[in-house]
Each structure stands twice: as C-alpha cells, then as structure tokens.
C-alpha cells in the first residue's frame, strides 16, 4: 500500500515542506534494525529511488560508469573509462576534502578523449537536479580496510555514494550510530578506490530520532586526531554537537525516520540540498545548511519572484523580514540568499547593508570565507559608486551610511531604475528611519528585506524612534520566516543562559531584598562601597565563572596589528594553534561615568597582585547623540570620539595607554587611530587575550566571539537590548562551554522574563535559562512529551545521585572488574563531569561538594585507564563494537586536570621540606595519573625529580632538563630511522607552529631516507607510518611542556 505522505515535499518551489502532517498512523509493533532498514528502502523506492543490488566495489564501479554515461549521454571506451576513473574519480592523491571540493565546486571535468577531442563530463547536474539519477543500496561490504565492515544504507547520485545512512533499532542511543560512522571512517571508508570518501552528508537514526551532518572535520578535531595518532583524512565527521535535526518551515522537528525520509530524502529536496544548500568554505569545510536557513532563503527568493511577476517592486509588498535568533547563522543564510538572488536574470544588484562600519568589514570576511571573491566590500562612498556602475560587481556589502551618502551625491543615478535587492542586517538604530525614507524614495524597483534576531514589535519600540516607521513590519513588510531563541536552544544551535542576580548593596540583615534592589538613585549606585563590592566580587569569582581551570586548543590570529591597520584589506590572516585556559568576559555598565569608576577600581584592586596574576582589562566607549539607555541598544560611534567631553576623552586616552603597554600597540583617541583600536579590541577579545572588557553599549550587539562565556551586568537592559547583550555569551564552542553565563548586579529578573516571552513564547524561560542549583545537585522531576505528544514524568539524576551510584560500583582508585561494570563506570563518571561543569559556576558548590579533590583525582585516574582499555580493545579487533556506545568526556576531564606548573609546584615543596617526600611523591604520581596530558610523561617527570639536588631551582632546572631530553629524543629518532636531519628539523618546527603533526604528502616524504624501488621488501608505506608514529609520540610528549617552542 502506498503511503500518502511519501512525497510531501516533492514540489518545484520548496526544499523544506511548509507544514508537515503525518497522514498514516505510527506503527506500534516492535521493529528490529533490519525491519527499520527494509522499511526505509521500501519508502525510498516509493519516492522514486531505484534499488540497486550492489554489495562490492567492482559492482559499485561498474554501476558508476553506467550512471555517468547516462547523465552525459555518452559512452566511454574501456581505455577512456580507465583513464577518467583513475585520474578524476579515484585519484590516490585526493582525500575527503578534495572530493568534497570536486562535488561542490569542480563537478564538470574537461576530459580528453582517445581521438584527442575534449569533452565536458558532468559528475552531477546542478542546474536541472531532476536530470540526476538516484539509487539506494544496502549492506555494502568492505573487506580490504583495517577490518571488514558492512554498511547499512547508502544513496548513490549518478553512481557516486553521496549520502550514507547508519541505523540503530529504536531505543538505542543515537550516538552509537554516530560512533559507528566514526569507526568506519578510521577503518574502511578509505579502503579500495576510496569511493566512500565522496559521501557529502551522513544521516544517523534510531528510528525515533534522526540527524544529519556534513563529511568534513573541523580544524580542532583534525588536530585532536593528529595528536592521538589517527589519520585525519580518514576522519569523516564532525563532533556530535554539530549534527542537525531536519524540520518543516514551522520549525517542527521531524525526528522519526519515516517523517525524515518523507521530507529530507525526497529526490527534489535531497538534490537541492546537495547542489544549492551546501557551502564549501575557503577553509575547506563543507557546511550543510539547516532547515530554517533553507526555508528562509527560499521564502525570500519566492517573494522576489512573486513581486517581479506582479510588478510589486518598489513597494513594501516586494519585501519582508526574516526573524532568526542571534547566533543561529544569519550571515550564512543571507550569503546564500544574496548568492542565489544575484543569479536571477532580472536582478541588477544585491546590496547587503549593515549599520556599522565594523560589521561591513566583519560581513565581508564571513562572505569571503564562504566563497572568496563572491562579494565586493567598499571603504568609501566613491568606491560604492564604482561598484554600482560595474556590471561584474553583482553582490555588494556596504553600510547604510555610505548608501545614504551615495543617494545624496547622486540624485539621478541609473541604478535607481534597475531591479535591486537590498538585504538589511539588524538595522535598529534611531536614525534608520530617515535613511530608509531616502533609500525608498530614490530606488524605484527595490526589493527590501530585513534580517534580525530581535524584531521591533509594538511592545518594544524605543522612545527615541522617529516618524511612523517603528516596527520591523512597518519598515520591511510581512514576516517571511521565524526561528526563535526557543527553537535554537531546543535544536542545540545556541546555548542556554545561566542568570545569577548578585546584590552588593545589602548591608543590614533587616533590609528586605526588594528594598535593596529598588534603590535607583544614581548616588547610591555609584557609591564607592558598592563599586568596590562589585569589583571585588568579579575578581574573586572570575576564574570560577570563566572556567579558567579548563583548557582547550584554539586557533589564534597572530598578526592582529597588520590586519587591523591594513586599509586595503589585503593582508592575509595568520593563525596559530595554542592552548587556552578558560573563557573571557564583557562587563556592561550603565554609563561612561560607571565605566571610569569600575576601570579605576579594578586597576586599584589588582595593583598588589604580581603582573602575571592580573586580569587583562580594557575599556572602550564613545559619545552617542541618541543613546538609548533603557534598551541598552548600541548607538555609539565606532569611528570617532569627537563627541566625548574632555574629561571622558582624557580618561579613555589613559586607558588606551594602558592597553598599548599590555599589547605593545600604539593607539589613541584620534580619528585616525581610534577605529583601529576598536578593531584591535575586537580581535583580541576573539583571541581570548583580553580577560574583561568594560563597555557602555559597544560590543553588546553584532559581536561574535566563541571564547566569550560571561557577561557581567550593572546596567538597565530590556527587550531587544537585553537579548542582544545576553546573546554575546551563548555561541557553541566545546563541551566545557555549556551555557552563556550572565551575572547581574541589578535586578533584571522581570525584564529577562518579559524579554524571553516576547522573543520566544510564554514558556521560553523554562527552555532558555538553567534550573536552580538544587535541581542539578539533588536531581529533579521533569514533565516531557513522548513521540505521540503524550505527557510523561521523568526523573533527571542529580550530582549526589550519580556519586552514590559510582561509589556503589567502585571506591576511589578501585578498578571495576567486569566489562559491563567498566562501561557503567565510564557512563556514570561522564555524567558526573557534565554536572560538575554546570555546578562549578554556582557560588555554593565549593562548600557543598561531597567529592574531595583526592577522590576526584583517583576516579579520574581510573577513567583515563578505562579510556586506554577501550582504545586497546578497539585496536585489537577482539571487540569491534565495544566503543560504539561509549562516550569519553575528555574536554571535561581536562577541566579538572592538573598541569605541569602544578606538578613543579609540588616538586618545589619537596625541595623545601624533605621530610614529606614520600607523601608528596604519592601526591605527584596520583596527580600525573589523573591528567590525560601528563600520563605519558610520567617517566620523564620522575627521572627529573630523581636528578634534583636539595638546592636546585626547580623551574630553571625543568626547562634545561626538557630541552636536553627533547634534543636527545629527536636525535635518537633521526639516527634510528636514518632521517634527513635538516628537513626533519624543519618538519618538526612546522608541527610546533601548527600545533599538530602534518600528515603525509610532500612534507613527510622530504625527511625520509632514499628507498630502493627494486627492493621487494622495502615497504615504503609501512616505513612512513612507523616514522610518523614516532614523530607523533615525540610531539605529544614535548609540545605542551616545552612551552610551545621546539
């Protein structure tokens, strides 16, 4: 029987179905994994896919030839096919990234035929997607990888495996399917002719929950794999955090496999996603757009088409606005919308308009990242005019100020009579109304669109708005698509907020809280005792709130001064991977007077600290003629300080001098240098070089830094200003950063609740804000909905409950005996690490934590030993699937780990009091065993301790010792493997600069000794892997402890 909802989105206009309603009842009977697979294949066949009986590589290659011949209406001779296959399809020099680039950018191959003529061979037809063939295969076997594997379901497009689906039966964790694909990546996707490296999209499902993700690995994961001695080119997927749900245009998640298959996997939708809604970035990362991004893009394009056909251009009916919450990827959506709109034959130009000069620069960099040279930026009105005159400049990024100036200077330009798409990004400033009027008056055939994370509704219109253009709908027209903060948090695309309210004015026990919070007099708020209390609180709790105990690898910009002072924007960014501790923060204050008070007080309180212990604090502000204090909405001038009174300017000048000393720069408040100071501050915040940035309005909108996790607030905020400010903190980075951290020194609870209700829905507070301390500490009951929409109550375990279970399973330092107990230990301790990560930001946790530091170290040691056990099992092949349902929280382990500085501190203590040597030695070895980064250095550290004399200066001796050991080990590897010493040294220096060991290619070959090509026992590949293994071991041992220098 044919399912009625098999092809719900098969529609020439939309990739994302408008509103999905299942039309057949959900099956209630138990479903095995095999039944799930067969049901999916049958559904795909009903949707127009051909089932192909292909289970081995020779069949896959034969079918590929047939499908490409059919697509190109051309027959290869055997010789031509062999040449084409070896050079263009299965070229041994090409890995996953090269193959992604082939599909996304280079899918038409100019091929020389046997008779010498040239023919374009299409791998995929991106113009007419229905011209492509789609087939489904299952149980494909690979026997020549690291070990034999059999894959679940694969979709072939023109014979190439472009989508792979891994299934688990209902009730099994989705991560098992994810981990299984990881394992295939390590073991067999690269086997044979490596055709499975062409997979663009992976789909994982347990029947109930289904997600998708792209094939390329984020830079940080490449490095992590390289450090662990795995081949990055065989690593085929992102971190689980970057997997996505599919949804309809109303943002209803379509998790059930049947629903996902009926929408995402319809031929039309899938082929559109592969050919139109993937972005292969300049950093060689494949981004598959999310459903809300695709829906918004298509709604915008559809609106242009309707308005063009009905000749509505030049009216509000030709446009509309996209409401996508801050942090959900609006820039990518706008890029794709601009790119596709620019290809419409009747559109002359696409203008992407921002409301600040720095956002112009920032957007240009983002667009360049998506596709180099796709858009044109400009530094002056004159340059904008040139681009508007140039037919080749299809997409132009500019500021609203430059556009308004262009209109003033060119009252009768030819562009006004052409069809022009204008996309405005977050234009909320008070002067926008006037500029909007000027633009719509001159341009006769405009299509006007607004992108915003916080629309202006009647409820949140600012008092200073002028004229009749008030709400976002008044300005741009109807809402085309919405994706709110509730949607984004539910889909794990942004983080929740944790909001703490700290009263620093309560001095008498009998004073009620509401009286304390109600004091609004300026004098009371500026009282030196209050300023001191707030400043001291920040200093005392800074490490705790910004999680300075955690560490992670991050790619830092190292040529900041050159980049920010480059007027022509031609300086290439240089990045270097480095190890960072924790995150950084912004302190939003009410006014410039407050900024002065806090900057001076924090400087005074830090003065007694050693320089290396002081926080790096900066401040930036400028005068704003229309400053909207109550909203906290940015209206400051990033280019000039001319509006500041003399006292404020003198203060800022002094603060910039402090900054110059801190970072060896030469900025000041002049109109030439202040804009570069702004850019420098921006880059150093993104680099996590500044610890605390004090601002009035700047940096509270439009600024993205993944390393920023905390916002300290002594400022009245409401509605869009509040959500914009809070949202600076909730970008996803890693498993340590699980929420955006807001610490309020004013009572903003009511304002926060009203804001979330306006921009989310009445239940938004429960979705968007973390629960109270007691819930995470003791556990709580939660009401959820099952897949049929029926309510059920579940108990969510708390920290103390996890600890109790762990103690029943194993005492501190005790290894569980059975495999089942070991896996249970891994899961329980992983749960403890996750909850500890949340609890550590609550002030009361330190006093109430029942787990002592020693016991935590002992449990961590066992956890790391079990990680080694799991790795050995995976590598031995005895228990192939033992790791598929195990997840190690290594980033969270590193949050509680000790580092080499702590170990050296303990060693120095041994020097001072020789009587405690036995106890300190035990302490040192326990600490080393509990650290993932120091475990492999245990012998090195113990040999160092043995070499010390009672009067040794530990820190100096350690550096000498590490340098000597590093030299010895390097020379030993060169000697044992007969490497070329000069090139080998250069190779290692390159690894030190990049933060990971480069894999394969010319770099590695250059250090190898000559090998006799006629020697049958030479085994060059084996030799390469052996050398690579030794170099990685050397790198892992010395990179961190050698201070980043070779």
From TrEMBL:
The keyword Nuclease applies. It is an enzyme of class 3 (hydrolase). Keywords: ATP-binding, DNA-binding, Endonuclease, Hydrolase, Nuclease, Nucleotide-binding, Restriction system. GO terms for molecular function: ATP binding; DNA binding; type I site-specific deoxyribonuclease activity. It catalyses: Endonucleolytic cleavage of DNA to give random double-stranded fragments with terminal 5'-phosphates, ATP is simultaneously hydrolyzed. Subunit R is required for both nuclease and ATPase activities, but not for modification. This is Type I restriction enzyme endonuclease subunit. The lineage of its organism: Bacteria, Pseudomonadati, Bacteroidota, Bacteroidia, Bacteroidales.
